[in-house]
Amino acid sequence: MRLMINLKNDFKLYIFICTVFVLYIFLKELFFDGMCPFLYIFGFPCAGCKITRAFLLLLNFEFLKSLNMHPFAMIFMVYFLSFIFCRYFRGKDFKFFIPSAVVLSIFYLCFYIVRLFAWEI
Q1: Which of 38, 40, 98, 115 could bridge 46 with an S-S bond, Cβ 3.0-4.6 Å?
Q2: Beta-carbon neighbour count of residue 32 at 10 Å?
């Protein structure tokens, strides 16, 4: 019962975010031929470049290729699955969601800066 209540509340809360994401994907395919708009406009990759391909490699169980493509894809997948498990199967809120998201974001930003300078060379 708690599972359905959480799913209903979350669906109401995140429907706008999901709609914007789907619209972004559609417009990206339509106007940028599937290429990253950030890379197309500014000439250097965004922080999320290659992460979609890394997720697809993860889904195909090609872990080393995924790790090579974008190391944070595997970290995000574990983070997301642990959140889903805590929220929907254990029926508890993920207590450390915000603090761990902040730490993860800081590491992600550091990785992006290092990768950006390595890409420039």
Answers
A1: 38
A2: 14
